[in-house]
Amino acid sequence: MNYQVFIQHMTPHTFHIPVLGLGYSIDTPVKVAKYGISSVVSIVDDELIERMRIHYARRYHGDDRPISKTEPDYRSRRITAYLDLMQHVVDEEFNALKLQPFDQDSDIDRYFSLLPASSGLKHRYQKMLEMPGGPERDAEAIALRGCMTVGDIDVNIMSKVDKMNAGAGGNLPNDIDSDALAALRGFASSKLSSSVVLSAGMNPRLYSYLENFADFFPDESGNFRKKVILKVSDYRSALIQARFLAKKGIWVSEFRIESGLNCGGHAFATEGNLLGPVLEEFKSRRTEMFTEILALTNRH
């Protein structure tokens, strides 16, 4: 497979809402994705996810039948069902938002008002509002609706949170039934086209499991249906993890830098380097890293 440089789907915003523990951002996409804002959901706690799925299924008249612990592969199936339900809800609300009239303090106006001041799309929207009614304004309104994009529903897996679990009916645990692997399988089986954010260190078993799912590999055009993002504390950590994945043909689409002492309630003490020098090393060595990782990935 020949990997090539490609442009990731970009949301119109300059920020995203990161994962906020196990529960604080569990349903954030339902609230913000229709405004083009991407957010990250933790998918490790299948019990919480199942309760949220039933809650939203009842609110939006979906299938609220419980997925029992006695059913095969119940963990990943719960995660898949919840992610698919969220995508369905987000798509419905986004499509309804696009049909709303402009200049009536509606959600479609809120969509454009939330865009950054530097956004060309926001400037076009403001000019459209100043136009007199008529065919020209109507045409611009249609064009603006066509430029709107929905926010991504990204997911987070804390790599080291990977305890073994008994299978359905209390059977002996299987490697693929661990917390992290079941979560990854749930995301991989979903209809989402978004990213998995792997954080809290490297888990070789989890990273190796990625190569079992075709969505993490590029299509003939070099595009990925599902992308891999790594949360790392420094350049060295990023390079080690990216090399490991590249040897399996998995491309890392993005690195997100976080402090080892301030990342969601767990601590990974480092050499004490400040984020400034860490970011500078990424900046100065990005071409070197890209060249090496691309070469390793293309050998797969």
Layout: helices, strands, pairs:
Blueprint: H1 28-32, E1 39-42, H2 46-59, H3 74-98, H4 107-113, H5 120-130, H6 135-147, E2 153-158, H7 179-188, E3 195-199, H8 204-209, E4 227-232, H9 235-246, E5 252-257, H10 275-298
Parallel strand pairs: 1-2, 2-3, 3-4, 4-5
Q: What labels would you give this structure?
A:
five-stranded parallel beta sheet; 300 residues; 42% helix; disordered N terminus
Write up what this structure looks like.
This protein has a domain at 38-43 and 152-298. It is globular, with a radius of gyration of 21 Å. It has 10 helices and 5 strands, in the order H-E-H-H-H-H-H-E-H-E-H-E-H-E-H. Helix 8 links the parallel strand 3 and strand 4. With 300 residues, it is of the alpha/beta class. Strands 1-2-3-4-5 form a 5-stranded parallel β-sheet.
Entry summary:
The chain is α/β, with parallel strands linked by helices and 300 residues long.
Mean pLDDT: 88
Largest sheet composition: 5 strands, parallel
Count of β-strands: 5
Distance between the termini: 7 Å
Enumerate the spans where pLDDT stays under 50 for 5 or more consecutive residues: 1-9
Alpha-beta content class: alpha/beta
Q: Report strand %.
A: 5-15%
Estimate percent helicity: 40-55%
Number of helix segments?
10
Q: Quick one: overall form?
A: globular
**Strands of the largest sheet, in order across it?**
1-2-3-4-5
Computed CA radius of gyration, to the nearest angstrom: 21 Å
